[in-house]
């Protein structure tokens, strides 16, 4: 009985907290599993969790087992987001083109400066083209280990003039033609990783001739 009484008192106390303070408490929680459980407690906690996402500038989903719908929902809540990191791991979010399509319509997409989707084998040119078409502020992009082709590189070259680094390791379907367009149209590009790709030596020389000082990891 005593434990139950304490629980009731604690619940009453936290219910008195202003919603902004409650959101700040949830903001301090890094586990998305814990946040999902908190969101299911009541409507007020659900709102607090939703508002906490809106304060996040960095979102890293490493090890989070989430589908496209859950990922899109979180990103859409994160209005202040500047860095989105969805790396592959054993239990990672296996996002697909459908997920990227949903993310591309989020309010934060135009402010993102960092996106990493390395190892996401479920994404193709279709998803990447939609995503980067609204990512004009993008500085750093890692899409290594995916099955993208030159079509993605053409879209990046067209939409991401601020791009400084790009990871394309093991992207074996990109060609010299795509890389030349990318380097030629991204004037701030400083580093490109094409390790494991099928890029001939002459292409490396051509890229350096286009942009002297470019760091090429191959």
From TrEMBL:
SUPFAM superfamilies: F-box domain (SSF81383), RNI-like (SSF52047). Residues 59-179 form the F-box/LRR-repeat protein 15-like leucin rich repeat domain. Residues 14-46 form the F-box domain. One of its GO terms (cellular component) is SCF ubiquitin ligase complex. This is F-box domain-containing protein. Pfam families: DUF7885, F-box-like. GO terms for biological process: SCF-dependent proteasomal ubiquitin-dependent protein catabolic process. SMART domains: LRR_CC.
């Amino acid at each position: 009985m005593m434990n139950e009484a304490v629980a009731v008192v604690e619940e009453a106390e936290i219910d008195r907290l202003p919603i902004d303070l409650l959101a700040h408490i949830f903001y301090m929680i890094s586990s998305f599993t814990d946040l999902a459980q908190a969101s299911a407690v009541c409507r007020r906690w659900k709102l607090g969790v939703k508002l906490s996402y809106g304060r996040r500038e960095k979102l890293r989903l490493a090890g989070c087992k989430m589908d496209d719908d859950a990922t899109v929902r979180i990103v859409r809540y994160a209005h202040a987001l500047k860095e989105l990191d969805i790396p592959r791991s054993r239990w990672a979010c296996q996002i697909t083109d459908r997920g990227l399509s949903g993310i591309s319509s989020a309010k934060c997409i135009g402010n993102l400066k960092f996106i990493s989707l390395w190892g996401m084998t479920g994404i193709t040119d279709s998803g990447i083209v939609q995503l980067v078409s609204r990512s004009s502020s993008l500085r750093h992009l890692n899409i290594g280990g995916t099955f993208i082709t030159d079509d993605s590189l053409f879209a990046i070259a067209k939409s991401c003039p601020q791009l400084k680094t790009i990871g394309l390791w093991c992207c074996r379907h990109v060609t010299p033609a795509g890389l030349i367009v990318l380097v030629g149209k991204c004037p701030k590009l400083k580093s490109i990783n094409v390790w494991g790709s099928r890029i001939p030596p002459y292409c490396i020389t051509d890229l350096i001739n286009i942009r002297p000082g470019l760091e090429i990891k191959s």
